[in-house]
Amino acid sequence: MTLPPSLLDRSVTDPDVKATYAVDESVGAIAPDTFEVVRARDLGDVVDVLTHAQATGTPVVPQGARSGLAGGSVALRGGIVLSLAGLTDITELDPVEATAVVQPGVLNADLKAAAAAEGLFYPPDPASSAFCTIGGNVATNAGGLCCVKYGVTADYVRGLQVVLAGGEVIRTGRRTAKGVAGLDLTGLFVGSEGTLGVVTEVVVKLVPAPDPALTALATFGSLSAASDAIVALRRERHRPSLLELLDDVSIAAVQAVSDFGFPGDCAAVLIVSADRPGHTGEDIARYAGLLEAAGATEVAVADDAQESDALLAGRRALHHGLVAKGTHFIEDVCVPVQRLTELITAGHEIAARTGVEISMSGHGGDGNLHPSFFYDPADEASRHRAEEAFGELVAVTLSMGGTITGEHGVGSLKARWLPDEVGAASLERQRAVKALFDPRGILNPGRVYWS
Ligand SMILES: Cc1cc2nc3c(=O)[nH]c(=O)nc-3n(C[C@H](O)[C@H](O)[C@H](O)COP(=O)(O)OP(=O)(O)OC[C@H]3O[C@@H](n4cnc5c(N)ncnc54)[C@H](O)[C@@H]3O)c2cc1C
User: Which portions of this protein are annotated as coiled-coil regions (predicted)?
Assistant: First the structure.
């Protein structure tokens, strides 16, 4: 596939640079042998790519920062990677309306910083905040560490500008605080993983800034005691702004990277934060009491924001710790919080029976864990066992009324399980919606909807 002359000056020709656009952070992603890369400089570039792609039936993979963990932004053979990473303007920030208008390549952390400068807060907080883009966050409906109190990306997207296959530019949603005119097309695009259109502008809602959070870290002798503590904290009228769980495998992996002060002999760690304006000290003391009552063996409470950061540092290092530990599949299951203990028990049972080492950590306060299944990449049988164990946990999750993906998206890696979750009839309706927006199937084909 060759690009038309009109797109050549925006394309990447150096093979080494091009190769950096080939894969995302998902495990086992393989770079295709032929693909083109176009780095969009403005809306017109996106329109040009989608006009050309529609006319020629060329697959397009929209791409932000390639931090995705589900294989949704991996280049496709013979396709065009359309990078939105260069569109980095925050074009408006309205402190009265409490909204911002941003281009898709703005980093999550940069939007947070711009909002904070106006005394406002953009809550969605993926652990990849420093390097992932708002476009990617919208496309995956990203969650993160603050969802237990603040919700996910969808809760903060008011409106979008989207370029459809064929190059038509549409607007969805609204800028105003309220609005119920027509169907919620914004909601349809949020979480659609680049399969319906390319997001070129996002109107986000901001909220008043909370106080700097105070954090507590508790150790537990059993994972079930830790998940009981999560349930108790979820009942709180003033809910924690963060509630994260690490199991013993994760704690050891993190400690192997650097000494974050985690004891070596505990089964689980819970990290809890309070950010309610004027009440952080009162709230964190109450949470500490609940952690002790649930059976925590030790509870450390930060006195200030700096100590809080120190208590959170180990959690922030989790991804790197697990990567350093070894090759693994990373799951993203989410169950009703009251069933967290059952999920964790099932994970341990699968690990004991199959011999696959599994870590069970993540956003415990949402019932959203990222179990990791370790295997030896040089041993096909070991990889197969890990895949089978992974499939077993998915089945358990669905039997509990849970979902195959809480926040990373379906992408390529989870597509085979989507029919199990949504059912054949719903899948057909979803395919019909996709066909309405993308009749030639050029947008991220093969992702989400397994063919
Ligand atoms: C260390 C680490 C920690 C992470 N922690 C979290 C976490 O806590 N919570 C969480 O939810 N995720 C997390 N992630 C996953 C990832 O960061 C998120 O999925 C993020 O939203 C992806 O953003 P991106 O800019 O990297 O998008 P990409 O990876 O480039 O793309 C992701 C998907 O969005 C589509 N897409 C990208 N931009 C556009 C656009 N403008 N229009 C249409 N479609 C588009 C792509 O086609 C792809 O399907 C983590 C990843 C890493 C590596």
Answer: none
What's the rounded Cα separation, in Å, for the pair 46 and 145? Answer: 32
- Tell me what the mean pLDDT of segment 12-22 comes to: 95
Instruction: Read off the pLDDT of residues 93-132 as tens digits, 9 standing for 90 and up.
Output: 999 999 999 999 999 999 999 999 999 999 999 999 999 9
Residue 138 CA: which ligand 1 atom is closest?
A: 21
Compute the residue count for the chain.
451
Phi, psi of 285 (to 5 degrees): -65, -40
Residue 450 Cα, ligand 1 centroid: separation in angstroms? 20
- CA separation for the pair 78, 60 (Å, rounded): 9
Q: What is the 280 CA–ligand 1 centroid distance (Å)?
A: 31
Q: pLDDT of 351-398, one tens digit each?
A: 999 999 999 999 999 999 999 999 999 999 999 999 999 999 999 999
Share of the chain above pLDDT 90, in %: 95
Question: Are 99 and 161 in the same domain?
Answer: yes
Is the residue at 445 inside a domain?
A: no
Category of 376 on φ-ψ map: left (φ > 0), alpha (ψ -120 to 50) or beta: beta
In whole numbers, what is the pLDDT of the chain averaged over residues?
96
Q: Which atom of ligand 1 lies closest to the CA of 411? A: 49
Domain count for the chain: 4
What residues does 215 pair with on adjacent strands?
273
| 38 vs 44: CA distance, rounded Å | 12
Do 316 and 268 share a structural domain? yes
Q: Where are the alpha helices (DSSP H) in 201-279?
A: 223-234, 248-257
> Which amino acid is residue 49, in one-letter code?
V
Range of the domain at 349: 326-438
Task: Note whether 131 and 202 are same-domain residues.
Answer: yes
Q: What is the pLDDT of residues 74-91, one digit of tens each?
A: 999 999 999 999 999 999
CA 60/CA 81 separation, integer angstroms: 6
Provide φ and ψ at 94, rounded to 5°: -105, 105
Query: Using the 8-state DSSP alphabet, how is residue 14 labeled?
Result: -
pLDDT tens readout for residues 230-254: 999 999 999 999 999 999 999 999 9
68 C-beta closer than 6 A to ligand 1: yes
User: For ligand 1, what atom is nearest to the CA of residue 139?
Assistant: 34
Q: From the CA of 286, how far away is ligand 1's center (Å)?
A: 35
Dihedral sign, Cα of residue 190, residue 193, residue 196, residue 202: positive
Distance 211 CA to ligand 1 centre (A): 28
